[in-house]
Amino acid sequence: MSSFEIRTLLDENDLQMLIRLGVDGDLCAKEFLKQVDLIGINRYGEFELDMVRGWFANAIMAGYDKEYEINKMKITKILGLDVVIA
Predict the structure, then answer these.
(1) Which of 59, 4, 7 is nearest to 28 (CA)?
(2) What counts of helices (H) and strands (E) characterise the chain?
(3) Which conformational region is residue 81 in: left (phi greater than 0), alpha (psi within -120 to 50 degrees), or beta?
């Protein structure tokens, strides 16, 4: 990694990182591993790509599921239904 890439990553805010990575668990996992290697906390290989990829994929889907449930409740309320839409 070049010094330019490191500087760019350090200057990046959360929104810029989200725009760059999106909701791709693989990209997020690779970026995470790049960062932990950069600051030296993965010296013994505690973080492996498959494990980290699974964690990010699960976290992304948990966020998606939560937002889906929130929107489902909003629609139910707007339509005045007594039962939550499946």
Answers:
(1) 59
(2) 4, 0
(3) beta
pLDDT in the model for residue 64:
93
pLDDT of residue 6: 53
Amino acid at 78: I
Contact between residue 52 and residue 61 where contact means Cβ atoms under 8 Å apart: no
Amino acid at position 37, single letter: D
Contacts (Cβ under 8 Å, ≥6 apart) of 27: 21
Question: Alpha-carbon distance 17 to 28, whole Å?
Answer: 9
Q: What is the average pLDDT across 56-85? A: 88
Is the pLDDT at 52 greater than 90? The verdict is: yes
pLDDT for 48? 92
